[in-house]
Design goal:
269 residues; alpha/beta; Non-ribosomal Peptide Synthetase Peptidyl Carrier Protein, Chain A; 8 helices
Length: 269
């Protein structure tokens, strides 16, 4: 339990630069509280203190809005943003370093305890639902409000209802190689972002030349949620990054230049 808690806290606070900022996240972040209360409930469950496990889960639901069964199996590094409406059933299995955003369901389809087994580095967008006894591979991203009722291979992005594959994501080795190639290249981050948008995002509404001032949201290109998901996946592959959706704000996606600035902040070193 305690090692899982250490990784959970570290995963959420790793981008905070100061001790006070980290402490503020630990004390005031309801998503982290939902994770920590799940860990406590699971600990009670493993010790066969089932009444305490049930009470802890109930308290977590009332306090944070997240209903996570103590009988669910969840690996270390779980991050939850905006926990209200999140529900994880008793027989669900979730791997390490997974991220849930808001109103996510990992539940039954037939009422027989048929819940998903999910791999590592999983990300579920707002409102995404995983229903039934499906197998989800590593490094899968499920788009906002998508409904998954069939198994998904590793390294893909899915969207829609029913969910369909909209993009295959590169394996970690190839992403690292792409980033190494970028490091040795003289092009700027902005130029790389422009290239990723123009050639790898699958966005068909971008007309004319792209530059730092090109507006992506609102009165500009006006990308919808699916197109933005394509765009983020393309940028991730270009730079060898995994971007937490919960850390992206509207201001980061306003223009090509603001997106490039956000990418610079995510790059190691």
């Amino acid at each position: 339990m305690f090692e899982n808690v250490r990784v959970d806290v570290g995963e959420l606070t790793r981008r905070e630069t100061g001790a006070l900022s980290k402490l503020g996240v630990i004390l005031l972040n309801p998503g982290l509280h939902a994770v920590l209360l799940y860990r406590l409930a699971r600990w009670f469950h493993d010790l066969r203190l089932r009444p305490l496990a049930l009470l802890t889960s109930y308290f977590s639901s009332a306090l944070t809005g997240a209903q996570i069964s103590a009988r669910a199996t969840i690996g270390p590094g779980l991050v939850i943003y905006h926990p209200h409406g999140i529900a994880i059933g008793a027989t669900a299995v979730i791997g390490a370093h997974c991220t849930l955003i808001h109103a996510n369901l990992i539940g039954q389809r037939l009422g027989t305890g048929d819940r998903a087994v999910i791999g590592d580095d999983f990300v579920a967008g707002t409102g995404a639902k995983i229903i039934g006894q499906v197998q989800i591979g590593d490094r899968v991203r499920v788009g906002p409000n998508a409904v998954v009722t069939r198994s998904i291979p590793e390294g893909v992005t899915v969207a829609g209802n029913p969910a369909k594959i909209v993009r295959e994501r590169a394996a970690p080795d190839s992403r690292s190689a792409a980033y190494s190639a970028f490091q040795s290249h003289s092009d700027s981050v902005l130029e790389r972002v422009v290239d990723a948008i123009a050639n790898g995002s699958g966005v068909t509404t971008l007309n004319g030349s792209l530059g730092a001032e090109t507006v992506l949201l609102g009165a500009g290109v006006g990308l919808d949620s699916i197109e933005m998901l394509h765009l983020i996946s393309a940028v991730e592959e270009e730079f060898g990054l995994t971007i937490d959706e919960g850390g992206i704000e509207t201001r980061h996606l306003r223009t090509v230049g603001s997106l490039a600035a956000f990418i610079r902040e995510q790059m190691p070193g």
